[in-house]
Amino acid sequence: MTDGRPPKSVLARGAALLRVCGESDTALSLAEAALRTGLPKPTAHRLIGELVRLGLVERTGEGGYRVGLALFVLGQSAPSVRELRDAALPYLGDLHEATHENVHLAVPDGTDTLFLEKVTGRRATPIVSRTGGRLPAHCTATGKVFLALDPSPPGRALPRLTPRTLVLPGQLARDLARTRARGYGVNLEEAEIGVSAVAAPVYARGPDSRPVAAISVTGGTRRLDMDRIGARVCAAARALTRTLSA
Known about the structure:
Number of strands: 8
Strand order of the largest sheet: 5-4-3-8-7-6
Low-confidence stretches: none
Distance between the termini: 39 Å
CATH architecture of the largest domain: 2-Layer Sandwich
Mean pLDDT: 89
């Protein structure tokens, strides 16, 4: 939990279990789920059993737990997510066709950037991101777009994911100023070695409002022409903004 303390209500405890199962790339054991939520193991066992019964969590053949199909269907039915994703998909597809790299649609989620959609292919650079996954905002191109336009960006030391992650407030502030000036964010191997990205903001009520999302292209550092990709990403983001503002 954000304050280090386990949740108190039954609903909050169930939500915590769902969250850790959703954030993990692999199935979690009961002990791991209890540890990550701070819940007593018997409590976690009882609640996760109920979540399995409801179809929100599923148990693997090896005894681990992961998000169930019912939760995926429920999440996809959220109107705001569905409408944004449906509007964005044509532009994401065009960017992928033009670059043959990974293309993301992301939204801000607290101190993270959350990937609502990922379009990729056989020719794209293999990367760790996935639809429904999240990464810290300060080390991603999409996250920097959100932080650059936030009136109160982080003012504390930040976690380091690679040797190139900007972890000092002054470093990040200068990078966010460059993001505002050029109109797009850049991640230079700050989340994953050998992988860089370019992202541009998407608005629902015009550029004077806060961005509701960001579009990015992510690929091998040596394969990305930042200026060329930046121009393409900005054009796609502006087109999606016009669609959402219509």
